[in-house]
Amino acid sequence: MIPNKIKVGIPRALLYYKYYPFWKRFLEGLGYEVVTSEKTTQKILQSGIRHSIDESCLPVKVFCGHVLNLIDKGVDYLFIPRIESVERRHFVCTKFLGLPDIVRNSIGKVPPILSTNIDFNRRFLYQSMFSAGWKLTKNPIRIHTAYWQAKKKQQDFEEMLELSRTPKEVIELIETGQSEKLESKGDLNIALIGHSYNIYDDFINLGVIKKLQGLGVNVFTTEMVPQKASLKVASKVSGDLYWTYGKEILGASLYFVEKGIDGIIFIISFPCGPDSLTVEYAIRQIKGQVPTLSLVIDEHQAEAGIITRLESFIDLVKMRKRK
């Protein structure tokens, strides 16, 4: 049996808000203690910037900062899967494929990295996770049990998202048993569309959800749309978009338009080329149906600028709704 004192660190960045319940339950099922990094702070961001090349996108810089935070916590291992595909015949951004190598080369001396290749074009998720589990324990029954427990935990997580809870709220429930529900407070319904690591990291997006709520807005996010529904809607207009997470952004925005949303705000991190193209395409598909706003976030974003743009957009939506 693996001693409980062995700690595995999971960075609170990138796909953390999509798969953390699965990863946590799987690792705990193998007998490890799971440690997550702190919420993003100026210190975490700046340390990540110092250990990243300038051309890296903001989420990767933040991820490196979270890895450094885990190293400071004294974890024994880092869990950083190498993700190539989560959907057959489609792919995700190459940063997910190269993430373990980015960390090793950017930071240098790091704890051993527990990585498994997740590629739905070549193998099923069970095979990928069994391979990862085999590096941690040679007990196949334990690996098998941990996988199916993790699978059930992820299903419960995704079902809660469809009840208009955000991943951040559900993870807080998992961790502490409590969370502050994203309550409906106003007459305007606005969809906040983007990758989970941009929407739910309140530091890098300057708390955009709370700012919108303060303006009397009911906020709906990408993860509140069932994945099958968003991918189906996206396929109607895009044929077969190459990037899975790009399809989710496109599909979720069009789904909300069909449901009668009052406006859509896209959040893009600099300098993400695929997102820039996907969002521009989505805006062209939506044109004339509902107002849209694109917010590009980077490490130099000023809060005053965000507030001004949000207030102007909300005024526009209100004026349009009155007409």
Give a written overview of the molecule.
This protein is α/β, with parallel strands linked by helices. The protein has two domains: 155 residues, Rossmann fold (3-Layer(aba) Sandwich); 139 residues, Rossmann fold. It contains 14 helices and ten strands. The strands form three sheets. A four-stranded parallel sheet has the order 2-1-3-5, sandwiched between helices. A four-stranded parallel sheet has the order 8-7-9-10, with helices on both faces. Strand 1, helix 1 and strand 2 form a beta-alpha-beta unit. Helix 1 packs antiparallel against helix 7 and helix 6 packs across helix 7. The N and C termini lie far apart (67 Å). The model has no long low-confidence stretch (mean pLDDT 85).
Throw out a few tags for this protein:
51% helix, Rossmann fold, globular, alpha/beta, single chain, 2 domains
How do the strands and helices of this protein lay out in sequence?
Layout: E1 7-10, H1 16-29, E2 33-36, H2 42-50, H3 58-72, E3 77-79, E4 82-85, H4 94-97, H5 99-107, E5 113-114, E6 117-119, H6 125-134, H7 140-161, H8 167-176, E7 188-193, H9 196-199, H10 208-214, E8 217-221, H11 227-238, H12 244-258, E9 263-269, H13 273-286, E10 292-297, H14 303-322
Parallel strand pairs: 1-2, 1-3, 3-5, 4-6, 7-8, 7-9, 9-10
